[in-house]
Amino acid sequence: MYTARVEEWFAAAHFLENFHGKCENLHGHNYRVRVTVEGNVLDNGGMLCDFGILKSALKIVFEELDHKNLNDLSFFSDGNPSAERIAEYIYLEMEKELNIKPAELSVVEVFETHKHVASYSRK
Q1: Is 28 helix (H, G, I), strand (E, B) or coil?
Q2: What is the SS3 assignment for 30?
Q3: In the CATH scheme, what is the code of domain 2-120?
Q4: How distant, in Å, are the alpha carbons of 11, 19, 24, 34, 45 from that of 58?
Q5: What pLDDT score does 20 carry?
Q6: Total-model pTM
């Protein structure tokens, strides 16, 4: 199994309801995001997926997130924009943007800090 991963950043604000701590207040993060794809077949150039394709798709997804209050996005209207849910959002939006057969999206990791990370995968 081969994997390829890109990493990019965006800045956004959020607050967590029913958290009972200081994160209930509006605050921001410089989120680091890693997107990993996997597959068993390389293309004629010896690549699983062109990194540029992944970066371009992630840039499109970030347009809805960067410098926004994540609580205002309709995706989070039924729950907090926690790192786990942000990872799910990015994963689902990346699926819409990518056409990388036979490779497939594997996992999205969202770092709120360099020590705190959450991920989403369909597996």
Answers
A1: strand
A2: strand
A3: 3.30.479.10
A4: 14, 29, 28, 10, 22
A5: 85
A6: 0.95
For the chain of 123 residues, list the mean pLDDT of each consecutive stretch of 10: 97 93 92 98 94 97 98 95 97 96 96 96 91
Q: Annotated catalytic sites, by residue?
A: 23, 67, 112
* Residues facing 13 on adjacent strands: 28, 69
pLDDT at 19 (0 to 100): 85
* Nearest alpha carbon to residue 36 among 112, 111, 104: 104
CB count in 10 Å sphere of residue 12: 20
- DSSP codes of every residue in 54-122: HHHHHHHHHTTTTTSBGGGSGGGTTS---HHHHHHHHHHHHHHH---TT-EEEEEEEESSSS-EEEE--
Residue written as tokens 């699926």? 95
